[in-house]
Amino acid sequence: MSASLPAEIETHRQPEHEINPQFLERWSPRSFSDQEVTEDALLSLFEAARWAPSGSNNQPWRFIVARTPEQLAKFHTFISPFNLVWCEKAPVLTLIFSHTKTPKGTDNPSHAFDAGTAWGYLALEANNQGLVTHAMGGFDADKARETLQIPADYQLHAVIAIGHRGPVEALPENLQEREIPSGRREVSEFIYAGQFE
């Protein structure tokens, strides 16, 4: 790789094949500082998500963003207690969801796949902007749907915390030891030649 990695990343993540360092540097910390995320930086994340590929270019992903104390408090009502312990410090929360129908009104079989791609683009751009993100599935989707008035033909996927990284010591003790970049299984464990084996 052309660029040197931060020691924290290099200790826990070693690629088997040559890749851009951004894929290793992006991970999901839980400690957030209360430093504000500027409007320009935040919008750049959604600009990156905008350019994600999607089936038939339907772009089914949607985001509801919470930044004000009132908006954040609303989000806090449907996030699980385990996640709320750490994510309530994040200055920005966003819910990613997707339209299950195409513009013609037929079922869109790739809506979730496409939304996941948009989240990946957003997460990589956050890292480029010096921000951290952490997506969580631990939330009450039914309560979120009701609270945020989301129609039935949209599927809710994750709540994403966005902000600047905070100190490890700010986390509860049981989470401090988990505040490291996670590893991944080897490429040979998830690709198959010709057929599934």
Q: Please, could you describe this protein's structure?
A:
With 197 residues, this protein is of the alpha+beta class. It has eight helices and four strands, in the order αααβααβαβαβα. It has helices at residues 7-12, 22-25, 39-50, 69-76, 81-87, 111-128, 141-148, 173-176, and strands spanning 61-66, 92-99, 132-136, 154-163. It has a four-stranded antiparallel beta sheet with strand order 1-2-4-3, sandwiched between helices. α3 (39-50) packs antiparallel against α6 (111-128). The two termini are 32 Å apart. 26% of the residues are buried. The mean pLDDT is 96. It holds the Pfam family Nitroreductase. InterPro entries: Nitroreductase, Nitroreductase-like. Residues 25-75, 88-164 form the Nitroreductase domain.
Topology of this structure?
Elements: H1 7-12, H2 22-25, H3 39-50, E1 61-66, H4 69-76, H5 81-87, E2 92-99, H6 111-128, E3 132-136, H7 141-148, E4 154-163, H8 173-176
Antiparallel strand pairs: 1-2, 2-4, 3-4
Keywords: Oxidoreductase
Protein name: Nitroreductase
Domain Nitroreductase: 25-75, 88-164
Notable characteristics:
Nitroreductase; four-stranded antiparallel beta sheet; 8 helices; 197 residues; oxidoreductase; NADH Oxidase; Nitroreductase-like; alpha+beta
Q: State the CATH topology of the domain at 50-165.
A: NADH Oxidase
Point out poorly predicted stretches. Answer: none
Number of helices: 8
Q: What is the level 1 CATH name of the domain at 50-165?
A: Alpha Beta
Q: Please write the string of helix (H) and strand (E) elements.
A: HHHEHHEHEHEH
Percentage of residues in DSSP E strands: 5-15%
What is the number of E strands?
4
Give the helix proportion (percent range).
25-40%
- CATH homologous superfamily descriptor of the domain at 50-165: NADH Oxidase
The dominant shape is globular
Strand sequence of the main sheet, in spatial order? 1-2-4-3
Biggest β-sheet description: 4 strands, antiparallel
Structural category: alpha+beta
Q: What is Rg?
A: 18 Å
**Could you give the distance between the termini?**
32 Å
Can you name the CATH architecture of the domain at 50-165?
3-Layer(aba) Sandwich
**Arithmetic mean pLDDT:** 96
